[in-house]
Write a structure and sequence with these properties.
- Helix content is 25%, strand content 33%.
- By secondary structure, the chain is an alpha+beta fold.
- The strands form 2 sheets. Strands 1, 2, 4, 8 and 10 form a 5-stranded antiparallel sheet that branches. Strands 3, 5, 6, 7 and 9 form a 5-stranded antiparallel sheet that branches.
- The longest helix is centred in the middle third of the chain and has 29 residues.
C-alpha cells in the first residue's frame, strides 16, 4: 500500500515539474515535433540528450535578469549590416579615387555660385582720362592714381597699373613705382620705365606686388618721375586696380 502511494506521489510530482518547466519556457515559434531545436541544445553539441536535461535540471529554480535571445540576435544582425554598409562605402570611396571626376560623381552643392560676402576679398580701383605732365626728377604722385584699401588680416597686395604715356622730346624717359603706405612694392623703389628713350610715344602695363602686408588701412598709389627735367613726361588714359589675397 505504501509503495503504491509513493508511486502515485512520484508520478504527480513528475507531472507538476514537467508542467512548470513548459510554463517557464517563453512561447515562441519552435520546430515541428521530431526536429532538432538549437535553442534547447544547451551544450551546443548538435544532439539533444540527457546532458541537456541535466543542465536544465541543475539550474532549475535559479533566477536572474531575463533576456530576449531573439532581440539580441536582431541587434547583432543590425550591427553586422551596419559594418557591411561601412565596408561597402569605404570600398566605393577608394574606387572613386581611381576614377575620373564626372558630373554624376560631383555631390550636390559641392560647386556653388553663392556670392562672397562684401569685402571678403579687399579691392579698390581708380581711373582717369585727364592728361597730366611732370618735369620732376623726384617722386610725385600721379594725379588720380591713389586708392585706399582695408586689410582684415595679413595679405598679399597686388597692384595693377596701366597708362598711355609720352615724352615732349626723345632722349628722356618716365619711370613709375607703386607704394603701399610707406613701403615700396616690388620691383622696388627705383621703379620701372613707362617710356623708352628712343620714342616719344609709349604705353606699358605693370603688375606690382607686396607680400605679407599686416592688417590695417593703407593708401596705395603710383608715383612717377622723369630722367631729366629738361623734357616733360606725360600721361593720359590710365587705370589703377588693387586687390589683396590672404597671406
Amino acid at each position: 500500500m505504501i509503495l503504491k502511494k509513493d508511486l502515485i506521489f512520484t508520478i504527480l510530482a513528475t507531472f507538476c515539474i514537467t508542467a512548470i518547466l513548459f510554463t517557464a519556457i517563453p512561447i515562441r515559434s519552435t520546430p515541428s515535433p521530431g526536429e532538432y531545436d538549437p535553442w534547447i541544445d544547451t551544450n551546443d553539441d548538435g544532439i539533444i540528450n540527457y546532458e541537456d536535461l541535466f543542465n536544465l535540471a541543475a539550474r532549475y529554480g535559479t533566477f536572474g535578469t531575463s533576456i530576449n535571445k531573439t532581440d539580441l540576435l536582431l541587434q547583432l544582425q543590425s550591427k553586422v549590416d551596419s559594418l557591411n554598409a561601412s565596408i561597402l562605402d569605404l570600398e566605393a570611396r577608394v574606387n572613386a579615387l581611381e576614377e575620373p571626376v564626372t558630373t554624376e560623381r560631383i555631390a550636390d552643392d559641392a560647386v556653388t555660385n553663392a556670392k562672397l560676402a562684401a569685402g571678403a576679398i579687399p579691392f579698390n580701383s581708380s581711373y582717369s582720362t585727364t592728361p597730366q605732365s611732370t618735369t620732376s626728377i623726384d617722386w610725385p604722385d600721379i594725379p588720380d592714381m591713389s586708392v585706399s584699401i582695408t586689410l582684415a588680416s595679413r595679405s598679399h597686395v597686388i597692384i595693377m597699373f596701366s597708362s598711355r604715356a609720352w615724352l615732349a622730346t626723345t632722349g628722356n624717359f618716365i619711370r613709375v613705382r607703386a607704394k603701399v603706405g610707406p613701403s615700396d612694392a616690388y620691383p622696388g623703389s627705383a621703379g620701372i620705365p613707362l617710356t623708352d628713350q628712343t620714342s616719344m610715344w609709349w604705353s606699358y602695363s605693370y603688375v606690382f606686388y607686396l607680400p605679407n602686408v599686416n592688417a590695417g588701412v593703407y593708401t596705395v598709389k603710383i608715383q612717377w618721375r622723369v630722367a631729366t627735367s629738361a623734357s616733360a613726361g606725360n600721361v593720359a588714359e590710365r587705370t589703377l586696380s588693387v586687390i589683396a589675397l590672404p597671406a
